[in-house]
TrEMBL record:
InterPro entries attached to this UniProt entry: ARM-type_fold (IPR016024), CHCR (IPR055358), Clathrin_H-chain/VPS_repeat (IPR000547), TPR-like_helical_dom_sf (IPR011990)
CC annotations in GO: clathrin complex; clathrin-coated endocytic vesicle; endomembrane system; extracellular exosome; spindle
Superkingdom classification of source: Eukaryota
Gene3D superfamilies listed in its UniProt record: Tetratricopeptide repeat domain (1.25.40.10)
Originating gene: CLTC
Protein name according to UniProt: Clathrin heavy chain
GO molecular function: clathrin light chain binding
Length: 366
C-alpha cells in the first residue's frame, strides 16, 4: 500500500491503479480511477469500498466531469446521511446544476432511509426553480417536511397558495386567513377560507373577513355569515354593517336613499346609528325632514349636535350675506356722490349738485 500511495502522490495513477487493485484497496482505487477519468470503474470501486467519504469523492468528480447519471448513483448513498446533505446540495448548486440536483433528490425519496431533510430541501428547491411542482409535493409529503423552513421558502418565492396550505397544516390559522385576504387572486378558495376562519384565535379577523367579502366577494357574504354567525357579537356586526351602509349612502349622493336609511335605523331602534348617520350624510339631508323625524320619534337629544352644526352653518351664511349687502350699499353710495369726469369735462351728478346747493343754503328755482 505504501508504494501505491507514493505512486498516487506522484500522480502515477496507472501504477497506483494496479497496486491498489492487487491489494483490494477499493477506496484508494476509486480515487485513482477518478483521476484517470474512468468514472464507471470509480463508481464500482466506491460500491466495493462503501464509505461515505469515497462516495462523496467519486460523486463530486463525476459532477465535475458532467457524468450526472453516475454522480446520481453515488449521491443516493450520500443523501441518506442527514449531516452530509447540505454539502452535497451546495456542491451542485454552486455549479448551477439545479435540474440534476432535483432529479437526484426526487429519485432518493423512495429510499428506505429517506429522512425529513431530503423532503424539506426538495420542497425548497421546487419553490425556487420549479414552483409548479411544489403544491403536489406538499400535498404528498407535508408531514415529512420541516414546515417552518418550507414556510419561509414559500413566502420568499411568493407562493401564496402553498403558504396558506402550510399554515393550515401547521395550525397557524390566523396567518392562513391573513395571507388569503392579502393575496386573494392566488390564495383565496371559498371552501378553504370558510373552514379555516372558524379556527382563528383572533376574533378581530371575523370582522376583517366580513369587510374582505364586502369588497372582494359580496355575493358570497351570506354564506360566510352563516358560518360566522355563532361566533359573532351580533350588535357589533350590525353596527359594522351600519357603518358600511352609511358610507354607501354618503357616496351615492342620493338624498332619498340617505333619508330612507335614517328611517331604517329608527325602525331597528338604533338611535346611535341615527345620530352618526346625520353627520356621515350631512350634505345630503334636509334639515326640516330631520327635524320632523327627530321630533316625531322623540329623539331630539340624538339629533341636537346635528342641528347645532346646521344653525352654525346658517348663521355663518347670513352673516356673510349681511356683510356683502353692507359693502354693496357703501359702494353704491360712494358712486352716487362722486362727480363724473370725461376727459377735461366736469359733469357733476344730480346728488352732488343738490348737496352743493344745500350747503350754500341756495334753493334753485329750476
Amino acid at each position: 500500500p505504501q508504494v501505491g500511495d507514493r505512486c498516487y502522490d506522484e500522480k502515477m495513477y496507472d501504477a497506483a491503479k494496479l497496486l491498489y487493485n492487487n491489494v483490494s484497496n477499493f477506496g484508494r482505487l476509486a480515487s485513482t480511477l477518478v483521476h484517470l477519468g474512468e468514472y464507471q470503474a470509480a463508481v464500482d470501486g466506491a460500491r466495493k469500498a462503501n464509505s461515505t467519504r469515497t462516495w462523496k469523492e467519486v460523486c463530486f468528480a463525476c459532477v465535475d466531469g458532467k457524468e450526472f447519471r453516475l454522480a446520481q448513483m453515488c449521491g443516493l448513498h450520500i443523501v441518506v446521511h442527514a449531516d452530509e446533505l447540505e454539502e452535497l446540495i451546495n456542491y451542485y448548486q454552486d455549479r448551477g446544476y439545479f435540474e440534476e440536483l432535483i432529479t437526484m433528490l426526487e429519485a432518493a425519496l423512495g429510499l428506505e432511509r429517506a429522512h425529513m431533510g431530503m423532503f424539506t430541501e426538495l420542497a425548497i428547491l421546487y419553490s425556487k426553480f420549479k414552483p409548479q411542482k411544489m403544491r403536489e409535493h406538499l400535498e404528498l409529503f407535508w408531514s415529512r417536511v420541516n414546515i417552518p423552513k418550507v414556510l419561509r421558502a414559500a413566502e420568499q418565492a411568493h407562493l401564496w397558495a402553498e403558504l396558506v396550505f402550510l399554515y393550515d397544516k401547521y395550525e397557524e390559522y390566523d396567518n392562513a386567513i391573513i395571507t388569503m385576504m392579502n393575496h386573494p387572486t392566488d390564495a383565496w378558495k371559498e371552501g378553504q377560507f370558510k373552514d379555516i376562519i372558524t379556527k382563528v384565535a383572533n376574533v378581530e379577523l371575523y370582522y376583517r373577513a366580513i369587510q374582505f367579502y364586502l369588497e372582494f366577494k359580496p355575493l358570497l357574504l351570506n354564506d360566510l355569515l352563516m358560518v360566522l354567525s355563532p361566533r359573532l357579537d351580533h350588535t357589533r356586526a350590525v353596527n359594522y354593517f351600519s357603518k358600511d351602509a352609511m358610507q354607501y349612502a354618503s357616496e351615492s349622493k342620493d338624498t332619498e336613499l340617505a333619508e330612507e336609511l335614517l328611517q331604517w335605523f329608527l325602525q331597528e331602534e338604533k338611535r346611535e346609528c341615527f345620530g352618526a348617520c346625520l353627520f356621515t350624510c350631512y350634505d345630503l339631508l334636509r334639515p326640516d325632514v330631520v327635524l320632523e323625524t327627530a321630533w316625531r320619534h322623540n329623539i331630539m337629544d340624538f339629533a341636537m349636535p346635528y342641528f347645532i352644526q346646521v344653525m352654525k352653518e346658517y348663521l355663518t351664511k347670513v352673516d356673510k350675506l349681511d356683510a356683502s349687502e353692507s359693502l354693496r350699499k357703501e359702494e353704491e353710495q360712494a358712486t352716487e356722490t362722486q362727480p363724473i369726469v370725461y376727459g377735461n369735462l366736469f359733469l357733476p351728478s344730480k346728488k352732488y349738485i343738490r348737496q352743493t346747493f344745500n350747503s350754500l343754503e341756495i334753493l334753485p328755482q329750476h
